[in-house]
Design a protein that fits this description.
By secondary structure, the chain is an alpha/beta fold. It has four domains: 2-88, Gyrase A, domain 2, CATH 3.30.1360; 130-159 and 257-362, HUPs (Rossmann fold, 3-Layer(aba) Sandwich), CATH 3.40.50.620; 165-245, no CATH class; 386-556, Isoleucyl-tRNA Synthetase, Domain 1. Helix content is 53%, strand content 9%. The protein has a four-stranded antiparallel beta sheet.
């Protein structure tokens, strides 16, 4: 993008002055002085034992001698103690914007596309989805869209928890009540699981009985499988409904059970190869390395009673995925607190010869907290179910703006999604964040509604004007117009960071800044009343580019645009 263009342009100036370095251009932190700057002289000063000022002055003179340099820069100057400052030429800015706007996906293409396998969502069958399930789904979906936008390929799996202890607990509760598979309803599951889970925490023998049912199910017990099939269908359909509301989708709806068929074969194979170690009757995989500061617990591949755990099913799932797909990298989106578990799994895969450790990236995230700084809860002290959270956000939204009382349900749902998603994605995913419904529902500040309001405000201008022959103009460029254009040109830098670090927050920062500059531009220029056709078309072209970029970036954040606000 523009920074790469500038670096390539001025790199020869350093070489011609006798300085070997990789030229680095950054955005100016003093926009009133310049648009971009280069600080290489400070590093070079230590290498060549010259003052930064001598180096910077020499390079500035060489840059000025570059052919057609005036097309790129309006001003190039040295600034004490060793900065090289650049002010871009308006024609160059316009041409860069026009080129970026006309290229597919704004030219944001990865040099060497990869195929990523994304594991996100991870809900447990028979458990109702609550606020704790939001981040995996939202962050994972956004990163998937970012990677695809950059030209990569993705395969995504929800990876349902459908073979764990909770299934045994629910089946136990159903049989205890003399209920058949045909008696199961979603409402029953919503009450039965919490009831059984609480009882198992108080009664170890009951927990063991439920664990036995789970193992018998895994071993093929036909009676339990009939219960399991109905539980999976009813709970799975409700999970799909909630993800559909969030516009989160998956290529695969596999569960732990889908990889279970591989476990006996893998166990025999790795036992024969001597890669499984016996420990108190269990078979484990030691994963600690000599370079580790402290010892990591081994991964338990099979318990002493013959049962397999999450770690072993995760290993088998990776084995299955590599058999079915050609994958360059795996991305796992879960709570940061599961970091140790996945490190055990990834290292085990390398030890077993399934895949090297560098194929895996753990994309952990923090918790969603309430205004008290603790994990978000209802007034009753429970994590709110997603249905309840959606309803609560919608109520606050309508109460905060009377004009939304008559809005369509579709538009309200879009706004609810924007509030929830922008509140989440604007944060570095590794940090906890406070979800303040009142704050994030406002049509001001760094919120989803503010971004959508800005888009609709700008788009309304385009709907009322003839936009068939728009063209950027290099004359009469004012301050607010120029600032918006330069901000738009930072798209490449922000998108690349979002893609490389799997951090949608860079996209959020970008569009929030664009919206701030766009609103300033809107307020400082009487676009509708402008009589000069060239100037007006230039402004309309800028608005058109702005809305096009905003719409595309909002889509990467899994946010749609309402018809009105």
């Amino acid at each position: 993008m523009i920074i790469e263009t500038l670096e390539k342009l001025i790199q020869p100036a350093f070489t011609n002055c006798g300085y070997e370095c990789d030229c680095s251009v950054i955005e100016s932190n003093r926009p009133e002085l310049c648009d971009y700057q280069c600080d290489n002289s400070f590093k070079l000063a230590k290498i060549y034992h010259q003052s930064p000022a001598v180096i910077a002055n020499a390079v500035v003179e060489k840059i000025k001698q570059i052919e057609n340099i005036d097309y790129y820069f309006e001003k190039i100057e040295f600034a004490n103690p060793g900065f090289i400052n650049f002010t871009l030429n308006n024609e160059f800015i316009n041409n860069c914007l026009e080129k970026m706007t006309n290229e597919e996906n704004f030219g944001l293409k990865t040099g060497a596309p990869k195929t990523y396998f994304l594991d996100y969502g991870g809900p447990n069958i028979a458990k109702p989805l609550h606020v704790g399930h939001l981040r995996s789904a939202i962050v994972g979906e956004s990163v998937k869209r970012i990677l695809n936008f950059g030209g990569n390929n993705t395969v995504c799996d929800v990876h349902l928890g459908d073979y764990g202890l909770q299934i045994g607990e629910v089946i136990y509760g159903l049989k205890e009540k003399n209920l058949k598979p045909t008696d199961i309803t979603l409402e029953l599951l919503d009450t039965l699981y919490p009831e059984m889970s609480a009882r198992c925490k108080e009664d170890e023998s009951l927990k063991e009985a439920c664990a036995t049912i789970t193992k018998d199910l895994q071993d093929g017990n036909e009676e339990y499988r009939e219960y399991w099939k109905v539980i999976c269908e009813i709970s799975g359909n409700d999970i799909k409904r909630l993800y559909e509301y969030l516009d989160v989708s998956f290529d695969l709806w596999e569960g732990e059970s889908s990889a279970y068929k591989y476990l006996p074969m893998l166990f025999d194979k790795y036992k024969k190869e001597g890669k499984l170690v016996v420990s108190d009757g269990a078979y484990v995989i030691p994963v600690t390395k000599d370079t580790d500061a402290k010892e990591l617990p081994p991964l338990i591949f099979r318990k002493s009673n013959g049962a397999y755990l999450y770690g072993s099913t995760d290993v088998a799932t990776i084995y299955e995925r590599l058999n079915n797909y050609k994958i360059d990298n795996f991305l796992y989106f879960t709570d940061l607190r599961q970091g140790l578990h996945f490190e055990q799994v990834f290292r085990s895969c390398e030890i077993l010869g399934i895949a090297s450790r560098d194929k895996f990236e753990f994309c952990g995230f923090g918790t969603v907290n309430g205004t008290d700084g603790k994990p978000f809860k209802t007034r009753a002290g429970n994590s709110p179910k997603l249905d309840g959270l959606f309803k609560q956000v919608k109520e606050v939204l309508v109460e905060s703006k009377d004009t939304l009382a008559s809005a369509s349900e579709q538009d309200l749902d879009i706004l609810v999604n924007s509030i929830i998603k922008f509140a989440d994605l604007q944060n570095n995913r590794e940090r906890d964040y406070i979800f303040d419904i009142e704050k994030f529902s406002k049509i001001s500040g760094k919120t989803g509604p503010y971004i959508l309001y800005t888009y609709l405000r700008l788009n309304k201008i385009l709907q009322l004007e003839d936009c068939s022959c728009l063209k950027y103009s290099n004359t009469q460029v004012n301050k607010s117009e120029r600032e918006l254009k330069i901000q738009l040109l930072t798209l490449g830098k922000n998108f690349n960071k979002a893609q490389e670090e799997k951090m949608p927050s860079y996209i959020c920062d970008y569009i929030y800044n664009v919206c701030n500059y766009a609103n300033t531009f809107y307020e400082n220029n009487r676009i509708k009343a402008e009589k000069n056709t060239e100037v007006k078309n230039n402004w309309l072209a800028l608005i058109q580019t702005t809305t096009k970029i905003l719409k595309s970036m909002l889509n990467l954040l899994v946010i749609d645009i309402p018809s009105v606000m």
